[in-house]
Amino acid sequence: MPPKIKYNTFLTLSINCSLLPLSILCTISNFSSQVTANNKEKMRTDIESLWVFALASKCKSFTSINSICFVLFILILWLVMNIIYWSHPGGPAWGKYKWSKNSAGLTSFNINNYNNNDHFLVSKPIPGPRGFPIIGSMNLMSGLAHRKIAAMAEACQAKRLMSLSVGETRVIVTCNPDVAKEILNSSVFADRPVKESAYRLMFNRAIGFAPYGVYWRTLRKIAATHLFCPKQIKTSEAQRSQIAKQMVTMFQLGGRDIIRVRDALKLASLNNMMCSVFGRKYNLDCSNSETEELGKLVNEGYDLLGLLNWSDHLPWLAELDPQKIRLRCSQLVPKVNRFVSRIIDEHKAQSGDVEHDFVHVLLSLQGSEKLSDSDMIAVLWEMIFRGTDTVAVLIEWILARMVIHPQVQFKVQNELDKIVGESRAVTESDVSEMIYLPAVIKEVLRLHPPGPLLSWARLAITDTKVDGYHVPAGTTAMVNMWAITRDPDVWADPLEFKPERFVNGAEGLDFSVLGSDLRLAPFGSGRRTCPGKTLGLTTVTFWVATLLHEFRFGPVDNNSSVDLSEVLRLSCEMVNPLTVRVRSRRAQQKATPNNCN
Ligand code: HEM
User: Fold this and answer.
1) Which of these, 3, 142, 311, 454, could form a disulfide with 318 (CB 3.0-4.6 Å)?
2) How far is Cα 390 from Cα 536, in angstroms, rounded to an integer?
3) Which of 6-20, 91-105, 544-558 has the lowest mean pLDDT?
């Protein structure tokens, strides 16, 4: 029997048995869950079931005396339903899903479609905390979510796979490399759950949040061919080298030897992306209104995307916009549009021999690849946005570790002196000969992955199985990379900072952090792995090599220590920006200020 017929029969039966309020409640419940369960389900409303309301309005029992009792009855039923939902492992969103599937008769559908053995797996609930009624485990997703989730998985003995409810969103999380591989490399999880802020900030038209399909594939291909391919990365070496020199000059000319490195690193990354994407070249130590304006736009977008938006998970809050996220997005988007449109228009007006950048590439696309102006704005904005913070955040963690472990810093500097010498600056081909520096960077990525929960989650496109459990379509999947990289079952002495493990340890020199080994995959893995990983890693390694070749980084004074406390925004950053004492290592060369004109 088709599920819909069963459902209507169920409603009719309910009414015949004087269970009208329950039927209404079921309808409300199903109606709201269909509208809110996930992005695709949002579009689906079951108009047929509204006939229950029409029946209700005709019912004679709705007199004034009974109204209060009826409302009370509805309230009690609502409470009971929510407690029933909440009692399910994983909390209310999972309970609601199971309950609605059972009442829609889909369980029998599943039984018919799986063999006996599979059906056992289908009905086995994924272990996980119930959290609170209605909001589930939303509290785990705020603050240092990676730590809270790891602790909860440990407590529930659900490190391989744990279910959670974040409001009405069903979530699965793994802290296990094998299960992480299963999720990230599965085509079922090639989509992303769209956050309202991402949608409003146009990221659904860019690579990161575009639904899995032709448009997303086209964008990835364009970016891979023109921005992230080895040839293009090589071409942009001169630009990275120039920015590295400017950073050195900036540190030398500071007039002080105590420096807050974050500001310089963020500006350097922003300038680097502005050059690759927009073709704009600015000196680091010369303020200019364009960089300042873009920096502010990126910061605001970064804040908005990093926030846990309650309305994403409790859709009945959406109209209220309690955190003012929608309002802030609506103020930011016109500014981004104006900024990027101006640059696109300038490129359109250019003629003659000009250096080619990513805007030129997008403008030159033809046929099925051709992008509208608004899509182009989204793609360009995303590149600036993603390329800026990740690189700066990672370098700050690396320098922090260099201050805490002076012997490691000394070893890197020794290696630099052997390969580069003292009389000239580092080049990227020098860096490719180094062994210890890449090991240091891997070790920092292990202890401080910039995206401890891999930044952006994945969404199940269809029903599937993960680690033997049934996972329904529309479920959000997360990988807790931070927990994996600190798991004593996966890593020896996981909390110790030991770059040597990547030189002569069990992991060895060949250990790749690019996604093939899920014990350490800070750039994700599978179809939606980070497309900018090689560019990001090249930039980070080269700039760190340059800085360590030029300077010795130490604590501000002998009594101060580096505070490794974290804050999780879009990336996981140091709470207190790193402040260091910088001493020049090379024979002091006279630094000359840049000409700002
Ligand atoms: C240290 C540097 C970086 C780190 C740690 C990093 C990390 C990540 C992670 C964890 C993801 C999610 C992967 C997944 O779901 O499997 C991601 C996605 C992405 N990253 Fe990066 N990233 C870095 C640098 C960059 C750079 C430099 C760019 C571009 C200029 C970039 C652009 C992107 C984009 C567009 C996506 C979305 C991919 C998609 O959904 O198809 N990233 N990154």
Assistant:
1) 311
2) 8
3) 6-20
Six token digits for residue 467: 């680690």
CA distances from 62 to 58, 68, 391, 472 (A): 8, 10, 64, 39
Q: How many residues does the chain have?
A: 597
530 a known binding residue?
A: yes
Whole-number percent of the chain with pLDDT over 90: 67
Q: Are 252 and 584 in contact (CB under 8 A)?
A: yes
Question: Residue type at 115?
Answer: N
What is the CA(46)–ligand 1 centre distance, in A?
A: 38
Write out the two tokens for 236.
């942009």
- Measured CA to CA, the distance from residue 4 to residue 13 in angstroms comes to 14
Render pLDDT for 518-548 as a digit per residue (tens, 0 to 9).
Answer: 999 999 999 999 999 999 999 999 999 999 9
Q: Which residues line ligand 1 at a C-beta cut-off of 6 Å?
A: 184, 207-208, 220, 382-383, 386-387, 390-391, 394, 450-451, 454-456, 522-525, 528-532, 535-536, 540
Nearest CA to ligand 1 atom 30: 387
- Domains of the chain and any CATH numbers: 201-584 (1.10.630.10)
Question: Can you tell me the distance from the alpha carbon of 265 to that of 253, in angstroms, rounded to the nearest whole number?
Answer: 16
Number of other CB atoms surrounding residue 50 within 10 Å: 11
Query: What are the backbone dihedrals phi and psi of residue 553, each rounded to the nearest 5 degrees, phi first?
Result: -100, 130
Q: Whose CA is nearest to atom 6 of ligand 1?
A: 523
The Å distance, Cα 529 to ligand 1 centre, comes to 7
Which of 175, 168, 148, 198 has the alpha carbon at shortest distance from 90?
A: 168
Q: Which pLDDT tens digit goes with each residue over 275-334?
A: 999 988 888 877 788 889 999 999 999 999 999 999 999 999 988 999 999 999 999 999
Spacing, Cα 302 to ligand 1 middle (Å): 14
> Which letter, b or e, does each residue of 233-251 get, where b requires 16 or more Cβ atoms within 10 Å of its Cβ?
beebeeebbbbbbbbbbbb
Measured by CA distance, the residue closest to atom 16 of ligand 1 is 524
Candidate from 205, 214, 302, 386 with most ligand 1 atoms within 8 A of CB, to mutate = 386
In three-state secondary structure terms, 560 is coil
Q: Write the DSSP assignment of 245-269 as a string of letters.
A: HHHHHHHHHTSSSEEEHHHHHHHHH
Q: How far is the CA of 402 from the centre of ligand 1 (A)?
A: 25
508-528 CB burial, b ≥16 within 10 A, e <16:
eeebebbbeebbbbbbbbbbb
Residue 209 CA: which ligand 1 atom is closest? Answer: 40
Whole-structure pTM value:
0.87
Nearest atom in ligand 1 to 537's CA:
1
Nearest CA to ligand 1 atom 21: 530
Question: Which atom of ligand 1 is nearest the CA belonging to 449?
Answer: 5
Helix or strand run (H / E) with residue 214? helix 214-226
Give me ligand 1 centre to Cα 161, in Å. Answer: 24
Chain centroid offset of residue 538 CA: 21
Which pair of structure tokens corresponds to residue 545?
A: 């090599």
Residue 103 CB neighbours (<10 A): 17
CA–CA separation, 234 and 359 (whole Å): 19
Helix spans in 17-144 (H): 20-36, 39-42, 51-58, 64-86, 92-103, 106-113, 116-123
